[in-house]
Amino acid sequence: xxxxxxxxxxxxxxxxxxxxxxxxxxxxxxxxxxxxxxxxxxxxxxxxxxxxxxxxxxxxxxxxxxxxxxxxxxxxxxxxxxxxxxxxxxxxxxxxxxxxxxxxxxxxxxxxxxxxxxxxxxxxxxxxxxxxxxxxxxxxxxxxxxxxxxxxxxxxxxxxxxxxxxxxxxxxxxx
Length: 175
Fold this sequence. Notes:
This protein has three helices and ten strands, in the order H-E-E-E-E-E-E-E-E-E-E-H-H. Strands 2, 3, 5, 6, 7 and 10 form a six-stranded mixed beta sheet that branches. It is 15% helix and 29% strand. The relative contact order is 0.15. The N and C termini lie far apart (51 Å).
């Protein structure tokens, strides 16, 4: 009887004990932004079209009352944004890259004008990501193979590879 109670207690502890939650890493990116007029007033109700350049697939949404728009669950690739609103010139961006787990902000300054006029903005995505507080680096397989690592034969520690990423800084004994 005592063994059965101990077994039940162990099962209940495992079932009801709050454990650490493992969160999956997304492989999708996002594009967010705001549609503004020349005086920085928001433009609610503007039509925003996001086009994936390689496939020519369009997604369309409308800006909310704060002039904001969002496109989530985007695969890696090149995208372009177009903002249209009656009485304003069409705003278009040049293609920009969206990476996995990256949020790209596109704020559209839409000029007053006719429907047939267009403004094309030529700029790259910002180097500093102001949308998500993450630090990331990319190292290609070739770069890893060319690094002078001494751990390949005896120790399989990934620390030398992590130290090679420019954004990684050592604070005390931690990276």
